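Need residues for this backbone.
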C-alpha cells in the first residue's frame, strides 16, 4: 500500500486513567519522533523520557515505542506514546502530532491499513473489533481463534479446492473431443460433494457465531395482563418493566440483555396484543408486531386461567421461527411447573412473578440457540459471512446439477462463483464500498 498520509489517534479509552496511549502510523513517524522526543527510539524498545511541543515546551513524561515498517501492526512505521491518561494531556499529545503533519485517523483506519498492507486478512481484522466488543469469555475466545487465523484457514482451504477443481474441469473442456470422459469417473462428483459438506459445516459454525456475537433476539408477546413484563423482570432479575394489574401498562418496546452460558440474550418486552382505540397503544401494538417479525424466538405468554393460548393474535407467516408457549401464573391454577409438547409447539408452565420455571425457559432457549458451553468449534462470524457462505453453498449445489447434466462450461462457472463468494469473506475479492462499511464500525485508534 502506498499511502502518503500519516494518521494519529487515541488508542486507549476516552476519559481519565493511569495511562493513555496515542498511536501514530505513516511515513512521517520518524520526523515526528525526532521533534517530539529528540530522537527516533530503538525499534521495539521502551524509552522513558519527555514529550515536547513543536516550540520545545514539555507536554508530559512517559514511554515511547517505535515499530518500523513492515514489522508493525499496520505494516507502516508506527509510534506509540504512552503518557499519563488525563484528557488534557492526551489532547495536547494529539495536537502536537497533528501540528507535525499527522491527520486524525478515521474509525478503524489502523486495522484497515493492516489489511491493505497484508498484515492480516479481512476476517482477522474484523476479529480485532470483535475481541474489543466481546460481551462474554466465550465470544472473546471465539474471536481470538478468528484472529489467529482458524476461520480464514478453513475458508482458504475450501477456496483453493474450488479453484483446483475448476482448473481441472476447464482442462477437460479443452479435451472434449477425446474419447475419455474425465468427468464421468465419479471422482469430480465426490470432490464437489465433499466441498458441499465442508461449506455446510463452516456455515453451521458461523451461524452459531453470529448468535454468540449479536445475541438471540427473544420477543415476549401476548395479550394484556398475561404477565409479559413480569417475565422480563424474572429473566433479567431486575425490575426493568412496570408491573400492574391495569391492562395495557406496556405501551412501548423495552429491551434488556442477559447472558446464558456465554450467549447474549436480547429480551424484548412488547405491548399487549389486542384491538384498541387508543392511538398511543395502537402504535405500541404496531411496534410489537414489528419486533415479532424480526425475532429469532417468540415467547407467546398466556394466563394459565385461560387454559389455552390464543395463537390468532400472532401475525401469519411465523412458521419459520421457533414459538414457545408460556403458560404463566400457574400459582393461580395449581398447575405444575414443567415442559410439555402441545401439538407442534413446546409449552412451558411457569410463574414469572415467583420466578418458578425460569431456569427451564433459559435451558430451552439455550437449546434453540444450539450453543455448547465451551463454544468449541464456533466461529465468531458476521451476517456478511453467512450471506457469502450461503451463496457459495448454492453455487456448489448447482454445480452438482450441471455435472449430472454434463454441462462442463456451466459447472466451471458455478465453481468460479463459489470461490469468489468464499474469497469475499477473507477479503481476497472485496469492493472498496464493503471495506468502508466494515472498518467504519471500528472504534477510533483501531
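Answer:
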Amino acid at each position: 500500500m502506498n499511502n502518503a498520509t500519516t494518521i494519529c489517534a487515541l488508542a486507549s479509552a476516552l476519559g481519565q486513567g493511569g495511562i493513555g496511549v496515542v498511536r501514530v502510523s505513516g511515513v512521517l513517524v520518524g520526523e515526528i519522533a525526532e521533534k517530539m522526543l529528540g530522537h527516533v527510539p530503538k525499534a521495539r524498545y521502551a524509552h522513558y523520557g519527555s514529550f515536547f511541543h513543536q516550540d520545545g515546551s514539555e507536554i508530559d513524561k512517559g514511554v515511547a515505542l517505535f515499530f518500523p515498517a513492515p514489522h508493525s501492526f499496520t505494516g507502516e512505521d508506527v509510534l506509540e506514546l504512552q503518557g499519563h491518561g488525563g484528557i488534557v494531556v492526551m489532547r495536547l499529545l494529539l495536537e502536537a502530532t497533528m501540528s507535525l503533519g499527522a491527520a486524525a485517523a478515521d474509525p478503524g483506519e489502523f486495522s484497515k491499513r493492516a489489511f491493505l498492507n497484508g498484515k492480516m486478512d479481512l476476517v482477522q481484522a474484523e476479529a480485532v473489533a470483535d475481541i474489543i466488543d466481546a460481551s462474554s469469555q466465550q465470544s472473546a475466545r471465539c474471536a481470538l481463534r478468528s484472529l489467529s487465523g482458524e476461520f480464514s484457514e478453513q475458508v482458504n482451504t475450501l477456496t483453493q479446492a474450488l479453484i483446483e477443481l475448476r482448473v481441472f474441469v476447464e482442462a477437460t473442456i479443452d479435451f472434449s473431443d477425446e474419447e475419455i470422459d474425465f468427468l464421468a469417473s465419479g471422482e469430480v462428483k465426490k470432490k464437489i460433494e465433499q466441498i458441499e459438506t465442508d461449506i455446510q459445516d463452516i456455515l453451521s459454525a458461523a451461524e452459531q457465531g453470529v448468535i454468540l456475537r449479536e445475541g438471540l433476539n427473544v420477543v415476549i408477546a401476548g395479550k394484556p395482563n398475561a404477565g409479559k413484563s413480569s417475565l422480563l423482570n424474572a429473566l433479567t432479575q431486575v425490575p426493568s418493566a412496570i408491573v400492574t394489574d391495569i391492562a395495557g401498562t406496556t405501551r412501548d418496546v423495552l429491551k434488556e440483555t442477559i447472558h446464558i452460558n456465554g450467549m447474549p440474550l436480547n429480551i424484548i418486552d412488547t405491548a399487549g396484543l389486542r384491538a384498541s382505540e387508543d392511538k398511543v397503544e395502537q402504535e405500541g401494538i404496531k411496534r410489537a408486531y414489528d419486533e415479532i417479525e424480526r425475532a429469532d424466538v417468540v415467547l407467546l405468554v398466556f394466563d394459565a386461567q385461560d387454559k389455552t393460548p390464543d395463537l390468532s393474535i400472532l401475525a401469519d407467516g411465523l412458521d419459520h421461527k421457533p414459538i414457545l408457549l408460556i403458560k404463566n401464573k400457574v400459582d393461580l391454577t395449581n398447575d405444575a411447573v414443567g415442559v410439555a409438547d402441545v401439538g407442534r409447539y413446546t409449552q412451558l408452565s411457569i410463574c414469572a412473578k415467583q420466578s418458578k420455571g425460569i431456569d427451564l425457559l433459559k435451558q430451552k432457549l439455550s437449546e434453540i440457540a444450539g450453543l455448547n458451553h465451551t463454544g468449541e468449534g464456533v466461529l465468531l462470524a458476521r451476517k456478511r459471512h453467512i450471506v457469502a457462505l450461503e451463496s457459495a453453498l448454492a453455487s456448489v449445489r448447482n454445480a452438482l446439477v450441471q455435472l449430472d447434466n454434463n454441462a462442463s462450461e456451466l459447472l466451471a462457472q458455478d465453481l468460479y462463483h463459489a470461490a469468489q463468494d468464499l474469497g469475499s469473506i477473507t477479503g481476497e475479492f472485496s469492493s472498496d464500498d464493503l471495506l468502508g462499511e466494515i472498518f467504519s464500525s471500528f472504534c477510533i485508534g483501531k
